[in-house]
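FAQ: What does the model actually see?

It sees only this:
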Amino acid sequence: MKRLKKRKWSKIFLILYVICVLSYTAARIILKEYGYFYYDFFEKGKMLLLLIGAVYIWCIGVGNLKRYKMRYPGRSITGGCILLGIFTVVSVGFFGNYFVRTMSMWETSAYQPVEEREEKAEETEESKTQEQRGVYETVEDAYQYLYDEVLSLSYSSSSSQYNAKGNFYAVLETGMGTYEGQENVPYTIEVVYDRISDDGESYMFNFYKIYETAEGDITDFGLRYLVNKYTGKITAEEVSWGN
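And it is asked to produce this:
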């Protein structure tokens, strides 16, 4: 009679558990458009259902081992105990890891939207990736930093372009000026990407002022800028072939 009662309650519990799982799934689908509350509430609900299921399976396992030992006293239950022990260790590790992660998230706002949390996580991951690969992975990124920090103090605009060979350069200014007594000479101020420095750590950009004279284009060389792609440090130097 007791066995029947135990089996009956086990079946009732299993039916109720299945109903809870189905209700949880339906509610998660229906309320999917909600923000952090949806994520937080259903994440904890999922873990609670998993925990209840794990405890139920563990109790069933212990009960079956006891009944097996009572029915067959001479037989070993070592194999069953090992399997139950493995299940226990895995379950404790899984739920313990979730508990630790939950504790670390308590510092964030309780009602922070899911979108903001995902965005911050992406920013953190991107920041870690940049630290591993370098602050400025491309020539364009390095030039934009150079313009924002230095060139924008003298020039109000910058137009990034590529020449016929696919090399990067930027036009800072165009206008009319004076060159060696000639007035109204068209000129263009450009910053042209040259190459990677010999130590492999910096992007090198050359500053040019190009005059369009009647005799042809004449280039007035200015400074060379180096942007360290790991630290962002900017240095300027005179070029040996410059004016």
